[in-house]
Design a protein that fits this description.
Helix content: 55-70%
Shape: globular
Largest sheet: none
Strand content: under 5%
Order of helices and strands: HHHH
Length: 76
């Protein structure tokens, strides 16, 4: 799951070197994702993992680890 999420983020943000991306990588602080980038990343993740992330939950998603935890909780 991590690798697929990483691929989505790298593609969306046009990241050249993804070696530093890990579970603690912050989308905004570490990857300079703006709000539009974040929305597009969330939309791609929703489509990829067949889930819906409500707007009120998006604010709680800061890191790649947060994304994975959210997906795992939704799939239970």
């Amino acid at each position: 799951m991590f690798e697929r999420i990483k691929e989505i983020i790298v593609e969306q943000l046009n990241v050249d070197d993804d070696n530093f991306i890990d579970l603690d990588t912050d989308l905004q602080e570490d990857l300079d994702a703006d709000s539009l980038d974040a929305v597009e990343i969330i939309m791609n993740i929703e489509e990829e993992f067949d889930i819906k992330i409500p707007d009120e939950d998006i604010n709680d998603i800061k890191t790649i680890g947060d994304i994975i935890k959210y997906i795992e909780d939704e799939k239970k």
